[in-house]
Specification:
Blueprint lengths: L1 H19 L2 H5 L20 E2 L11 E5 L16 E5 L7 E8 L5 E10 L9 E6 L2 E8 L8 E8 L5 E8 L8 E11 L4 H21 L4
Parallel strand pairs: 1-2
Antiparallel strand pairs: 2-3, 3-10, 4-9, 5-8, 5-10, 6-7, 6-9
Helix pairs in contact: 1-3
């Protein structure tokens, strides 16, 4: 009988762990197409979409792809897709936006990589993350030389929220030279929130107590 109780205890602890750890922490990146390998899908943009890199001719246009007048590869593999944009002249225009479900009371991190396109830019793109329309993390000023990938990130605590809207905006509204690429956008949970861990601990204590009381059973 004691052996059966131990097995039941082990199973219950595993169940409690699965409940306490946010599903996002187990699933990894919550974004649908953060590396853009699926093309122009899984996100929205305030920019105007064109089919290829060579068709980007005006401010506020973007595409998903590679090649054309780009002189370097994407961040993921060097030969895949990335989001390519000509900076918008309109302030607070999101080049990338996605809404995802989240676990309440959980820490998350939004991360992305960006690079200038021009080899000697005279007007540097400045990428800023927004979470629920609020500035999140520090702005990321890209380099004058094109093709140098830099990482931006922002931490966020979900509180009672069950969904969140994430955006990336180029704060530079100047027209000439303001061209950039974005790749490998991710949104991941970091650690279980304290309440979940407390519930797990209390559940283990209750089960252990019942096991002690049941040791005399045969």
């Amino acid at each position: 009988m004691r052996h059966g109780l131990v097995l039941s205890f082990t199973g219950l602890v595993a169940c409690l762990l699965a409940t306490a750890l946010p599903s996002s922490a187990r699933a990894g990146n919550l974004l649908a197409n953060g590396d853009f390998e699926a093309g122009n899908t899984g996100f929205t943009s305030g920019y105007t979409y064109v089919s290829t890199v060579d068709q980007i001719t005006a401010e506020g246009e973007y595409t998903v792809g590679s090649g054309g007048w780009l002189s370097f590869g994407d961040h993921t593999s060097g030969h895949g897709n990335m989001l390519v944009a000509n900076g918008s002249p309109n302030a607070n225009t999101s080049v990338w936006t996605e809404t995802v479900s989240v676990i309440p009371y959980t820490e998350y991190v939004l991360s992305f990589w960006g690079a200038s396109v021009n080899q000697s830019s005279q007007s540097l793109p400045v990428l800023q993350a927004f979470i629920n329309s609020t500035v999140a993390g520090n702005s990321l000023t890209l380099t004058q030389q094109g093709g140098i990938w830099l990482q931006g990130s922002a931490a966020w605590f979900s509180g009672s929220s069950s969904a969140v809207t994430l955006s990336i905006v180029d704060l530079n509204t100047a027209g000439p030279w303001n061209d950039f690429v974005i790749d490998d956008v991710s949104f991941t949970a970091t650690v279980p929130e304290p309440t979940s861990l407390a519930l797990l601990a209390s559940g283990v204590v209750v089960v252990a107590s019942r096991l002690r009381r049941g040791r005399g059973l045969h």
